[in-house]
Input
Amino acid sequence: MRKKIVAGNWKMHTLLKEGMELAEKVERFSKEKGDDVIVVIAPPFTHLSKIREVTDLVKLAAQNCSSEESGAYTGEVSPDMLLSAGAEYVILGHSERRAYYHEDNHLLNKKIRLALDKGLKPIYCCGEVLAEREAGKLFEVVKDQLTVGLQGLNTAQFSQVIIAYEPVWAIGTGITATPAQAQEMHAFIRNLIADMYDDRIAGETTILYGGSCKPSNARELFANPDVDGGLIGGASLKAEDFIQIVNAF
Ligand code: PGA
Output
């Protein structure tokens, strides 16, 4: 059985105190709920080690990491540093990193390999922009992101990767992919993974949906056979909303 995951991507939001309060609320809820869904939060780097002190069931992700192991790379944060601060996961290839920081599939492949070598689980994001969808290129774009981004990973390495399909036109816009649009792409991704690896591996891969997922639509999105959870931006900043989304399974 593949794992269900709901991950909150806080982006560049919250100061430390607010972040701690938010994390504490999510942790309290997770304790009551039990562990059928893995709950992950991705606070800013600066909060990780403090939040680690107040979380146990809730797992921590970083929002990015360096492609280099260590050295003279001012401003970068290495996978080892993230692990030492309590992160287990790292979001890589988010569309905001691709668009604003020019991260391409080759760089992301390097980051994914290093993160895996060090023992972090990548949450690798893929997804098309609106013009690509309208031009009918959505599958081509996502295929490229996955085949190049995941190039060279053996089965054991790939088994640690979580995929997040995030149509860029749905991120932070309030427009959500319809359940049918999400299912169509998730099934495409699972088939692609079966081609890259095999059916068993594809069946075990967790594929999250992201892009304006909120309490009002999470249930119908998660009801799709190939949607195994969500990567939640805006709605993860309010504990009540995030909790409702986790409860949507
Ligand atoms: P959103 O963001 O839920 O605010 O659309 C999702 C994401 O960027 O991961």
